[in-house]
Write a structure and sequence with these properties.
It is built from six helices and eight strands; from the N terminus they run H-E-E-E-E-H-H-E-H-E-H-E-E-H. A hairpin with a 2-residue loop joins strand 7 and strand 8. The protein is globular.
C-alpha cells in the first residue's frame, strides 16, 4: 500500500477538522434516522409462534424474559447444517458483552435459527458464546419474517429478500427483527436485512477506521475473508 499524501502536522489538523464537519453532519443524520426508525408504525403479531428453548417450548412473548423490548437476530443455520454461517458468527462474536447493557435498558437479545436446539447449543459451546439461542423447528417464524426460503438454490421468480428489493437464491439469509410486548400483546416494530445489519458489527466499525479499510476489493465476494473465529490460521 502506498502512503497517502504526506503533509505537516498543521496541514493534517486542518484536513482533519474539515473531515470532522462531515462526521458531525453524519452523526446528526444518523440520530435523525434513528428517531424515524423509532417512529415507524407497529404491527400486532397475531400468530402464536413456538420455539424450542433451554427452558422448554416457549412462545414469542416468552422470549422477552422480564423485558418489554426484544431484538431477534435471525442467525443463518439451516435444519441440516453442521455449522452456523461464518458471517452470522462474525456478527455474533460481539453479542455477549452487550447483553448486560441491553438488559439495563429493558432489552433482550435472542438468536433464532431453524437448526435443532442441540445442534445450535453444540455450536454455541464451540464458539464460547452465552447468549440465548432458540430453534424454530416446527415453526415458520423465519419464513414469515423473510429470512428462510423454500427451494433454496433456485432462482426466485421475483425479488424475495430485504423488502423485495433483492434476490436470495439460498435457503437462508441474515436479518434482525424487533418486537415490543405490552402485557400479552406483541408488536413487530422493525426489521432490517443485508447491509442494514452493518451497524451491529463493531469489528467492521473498527476496520473502517484504519488506512486500508475493509480491503475487500478483488475478493470473490466482499466477506470472502471472514472465518469463524476458531478457524483463522488453519
Amino acid at each position: 500500500m502506498q502512503p497517502n499524501k504526506l503533509v505537516s502536522r498543521q496541514e493534517w489538523q486542518a484536513a482533519r477538522r474539515e473531515l470532522l464537519q462531515r462526521e458531525k453532519a453524519h452523526t446528526r443524520e444518523r440520530e435523525a434516522l434513528a428517531q424515524a426508525r423509532r417512529e415507524l408504525p407497529w404491527v400486532e403479531v397475531g400468530r402464536t409462534y413456538q420455539f424450542q428453548t433451554e427452558r422448554g417450548v416457549e412462545e414469542l412473548r416468552d422470549l422477552f424474559g422480564g423485558c418489554s423490548q426484544l431484538i431477534v437476530y435471525h442467525f443463518m443455520f439451516g435444519p441440516d447444517w453442521r455449522e452456523g454461517c461464518p458471517s452470522c458468527s462474525f456478527w455474533a462474536d460481539t453479542y455477549d458483552g452487550a447483553l448486560p447493557h441491553l438488559a439495563a435498558r429493558d432489552i433482550r437479545l435472542v438468536a433464532v435459527s431453524r437448526a435443532p436446539l442441540a445442534t445450535l447449543h453444540a455450536y454455541r459451546v464451540r464458539m464460547g458464546w452465552g447468549f440465548d439461542w432458540v430453534s424454530t423447528v416446527g415453526s415458520d417464524f423465519n419464513r414469515e419474517f423473510a429470512v428462510s426460503f423454500p427451494g433454496g438454490g433456485e432462482e426466485p421468480a421475483q425479488p424475495n429478500y430485504n423488502f423485495a428489493t433483492q434476490v436470495c437464491k439460498g435457503e437462508e439469509a441474515p436479518g434482525l427483527s424487533v418486537f415490543y410486548r405490552d402485557g400479552s400483546t406483541v408488536y413487530h416494530t422493525y426489521s432490517c436485512y443485508a447491509r442494514g445489519l452493518d451497524m451491529l458489527n463493531s469489528t467492521y466499525q473498527h476496520i473502517d477506521l484504519v488506512p486500508r479499510g475493509r480491503d475487500e476489493q478483488g475478493l470473490p465476494w466482499p466477506m470472502a475473508w471472514v472465518r469463524r473465529h476458531d478457524e483463522y490460521g488453519q
